[in-house]
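hiii so um. not sure if this is the right channel but i have a protein structure encoded as tokens and i wanna go backwards to a sequence. like what aa goes where. can anyone help
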């Protein structure tokens, strides 16, 4: 597998993980489940925003 193929595969996996994280977040929110201090939700949004802006995923 070439470096380009590896990078493409990793981007694909990252995109799929991002979709799963968003769906899980929506499910938790739909049931009113959140952390006590909100730090996890903030970190999650920061990571997802970073992924979108850095990689354009």
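sure thing!! here u go:
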């Amino acid at each position: 597998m070439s470096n380009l193929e590896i990078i493409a595969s990793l981007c694909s996996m990252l995109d799929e993980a991002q979709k799963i994280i968003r769906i899980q977040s929506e499910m938790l929110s739909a049931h009113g489940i959140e952390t006590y201090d909100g730090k996890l939700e903030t970190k999650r949004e920061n990571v997802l925003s970073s992924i979108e802006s850095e990689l354009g995923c």
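oh and Helices lie at 3-30, 39-55.
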